[in-house]
Specification:
alpha+beta, 4-stranded antiparallel beta sheet, 3-stranded antiparallel beta sheet, 49% helix, elongated
């Protein structure tokens, strides 16, 4: 779950938060959840995150809005709510999410593995040392930051408690394996960009000659029916094409046009002389070949009702992606032309199962990543139910005191200083 991506956001928050008053005794906590008081420092931190969420949402809705002006942000509406109410609700939802995760962590009698606890402590020590002055003057204590950081680690443990292989929900290695194979394309492709040495699109006979070169490569690969031999040939083709690109570029660079004193355009050809010095003795060269170095493992693009086409990324582009997932057959190469980039792709798809071993692709780390891809939405739904069941009582005095629009962002420009 990548620690819910909170640690990176914490670093940004540390750089940007500044000059909030320290907590008073009646505002030392922001709310009470299932009888447990949530420290004001945690709420202040999440208020910053929520404000940043609001700015990004507003900017995505209208890029012309000056989101650097807090007064402008305050006047906006998000999801039909005033910006202030939206930000406050978001900050509270962050607090409730943390409380729900920690509650389930305890209920399941979980503990952080020793190496994870060490990582947490080490990260916390360094993070606090770098940012403590900024946090402390904002009324955010070291214990509040530790609680937030610890929660990100707890969230991972809770997720894998339920959805890890062999976990409480009965996820098996077999079904995770099956999901990965069905949603990943093991491919190799060589991209032939139909341009000359200076990047201009090939035309006429030059383009015809280029296409014949690509067709020749395709014919050479099609003669083979063994994946290892196909891959070896594809590697050779990639090397040959790289050399071709280098040669045409050097040829173009060696021949340049200039304007002489009379205003005439003339061609100047340059030559380069290289001297080679040899010495007595023998040199032994050892070449190590990395297996599958030129392969690409392409994940299937997943979408939902909120996904926008312009936000999707296809590897290497949508034309080739669509061919790989919808038309390509195992060990049967073909050429695909992408008009937008003026590029011919020699593409072959291999059998994913051939690499599904623990010492190759199917490592424990990848298995955990696949589980995350499979069950993140299920976990989100489960977490939302946990949150709904919480007994939440807000400390209105604290919520009023820690107004997100009173945060000072003056340090943002100097965050890297």
């Amino acid at each position: 779950m990548a620690n819910f991506k909170r640690i990176a956001a914490m670093a940004a928050a540390a750089a940007m938060l500044s000059s909030m008053a320290a907590c008073g005794s009646n505002t030392a906590y922001a709310l009470t959840i299932d009888g447990e008081q949530i420290k004001a420092g945690i709420y202040i931190y999440y208020s910053y995150l929520a404000y940043n969420d609001a700015v990004q949402t507003i900017a995505s809705q209208d890029s012309e809005i000056d989101t650097s002006d807090k007064e402008v942000v305050k006047k906006q509406k998000i999801d039909g709510k005033d910006a202030y109410d939206w930000i406050q609700d978001k900050a509270l939802s962050y607090c409730k999410e943390q409380a729900a995760i920690n509650k389930e962590f305890k209920a399941a009698n979980l503990t952080l593995p020793e190496e994870t606890q060490t990582e947490l402590d080490t990260t916390m020590e360094s993070f606090w040392e770098q940012n403590k002055e900024n946090f402390m003057k904002n009324g955010i204590s070291e214990s509040s930051i530790y609680d937030i950081m610890e929660y990100t680690y707890n969230a991972n443990e809770v997720f894998y408690y339920y959805y890890g292989i062999g976990g409480a929900d009965g996820v098996t290695e077999k079904e995770v394996h099956k999901y990965y194979v069905e949603n990943t394309a093991r491919t190799q492709y060589v991209a032939f960009n139909a341009v000359d040495g200076v990047g201009e699109a090939l035309e006429g006979s030059a383009k015809t000659k280029f296409e014949k070169m690509v067709d020749g490569y395709l014919a050479a690969v099609k003669k083979l029916d063994d994946s290892d031999k196909i891959e070896e040939e594809m590697n050779s083709i990639q090397e040959e094409y790289n050399a071709y690109v280098t040669s045409v570029s050097e040829e173009a660079a060696a021949t340049a046009t200039v304007t002489n004193e009379a205003g005439e355009t003339v061609t100047v050809t340059t030559t380069t002389t290289a001297e080679t010095t040899t010495s007595e003795g023998e040199t032994t060269t050892t070449t190590t070949t990395i297996p599958y170095a030129n392969e690409a493992l392409i994940p299937k693009v997943t979408t939902d009702e909120d996904t926008k086409e312009e936000d999707l990324t296809y590897t290497p582009n949508k034309t080739v992606y669509d061919y790989i997932f919808n038309k390509a057959k195992i060990n049967e190469p073909d050429v695909v032309y992408d008009e937008e980039s003026n590029t011919y792709y020699l593409v072959v798809r291999y059998d994913m199962e051939d690499r599904m071993t623990a010492d190759d692709v199917w490592t424990e780390q990848l298995q955990r990543g696949v589980v995350s891809a499979m069950y993140s939405k299920d976990f989100r739904d489960r977490l939302d139910k946990w949150i709904e069941a919480l007994d939440v009582k807000a400390n209105n005095a604290a919520l009023k005191r820690y107004n997100p629009f009173e945060l000072n962002f003056e340090n943002e420009q100097n965050a890297g200083a």
